[in-house]
Every structure is written in structure tokens, then in C-alpha cells.
Amino acid sequence: MAIIVDLDLQLARHNLSVGEFAAAVGITPANIAVLKNGRAKAVRFTTLDAICRTLDCQPGDVLRWVPDDEPDRGAPLP
């Protein structure tokens, strides 16, 4: 998949556990794991809105595009 979800970096910046973050966003920790592991096929705008509100960030801070012919090089440096 060409869309990478960089939640780990944001959770660390905000000192949030997956459980705390899931409760604040209103989804299950299992669904957070699906997002973090790149297994999500879609994200509702309402969920993305809740993620951005919780982390006080923009969608581009948690989502990035990588061309299919390039390997994922990990999260960008802060």
C-alpha cells in the first residue's frame, strides 16, 4: 500500500498510550493497531477528524504517500 500511517511518532510526541488514544478518538485499540500496522483499507473522515483533534495535528502529520516502487523508509524525522 502506498499510504503510510505514522501514528507511533505522534503518540510518542503526545505521550499517549494506544489505550488512551483509542478512548480519546472513540475507536477500539484493535482498530488503532490496524491503522498502525498498515492493514487499514479505509479511514472515515470522522475518524480522521477525531485523530487530528486528539493529536492537535493535520492529516498530513499522520498520513503520507509513498510510491509503490519505493520501499517504506520509516517515519520522517521530526
UniProtKB/TrEMBL annotation:
InterPro entries: Cro/C1-type_HTH (IPR001387), Lambda_DNA-bd_dom_sf (IPR010982). Coiled coil: none annotated. SUPFAM superfamilies: lambda repressor-like DNA-binding domains. SMART domains: HTH_XRE. It comes from the Bacteria. Pfam families: HTH_26. CDD domains: HTH_XRE. Residues 13-62 form the HTH cro/C1-type domain. This is Helix-turn-helix transcriptional regulator. The lineage of its organism: Bacteria, Bacillati, Actinomycetota, Actinomycetes, Kitasatosporales.
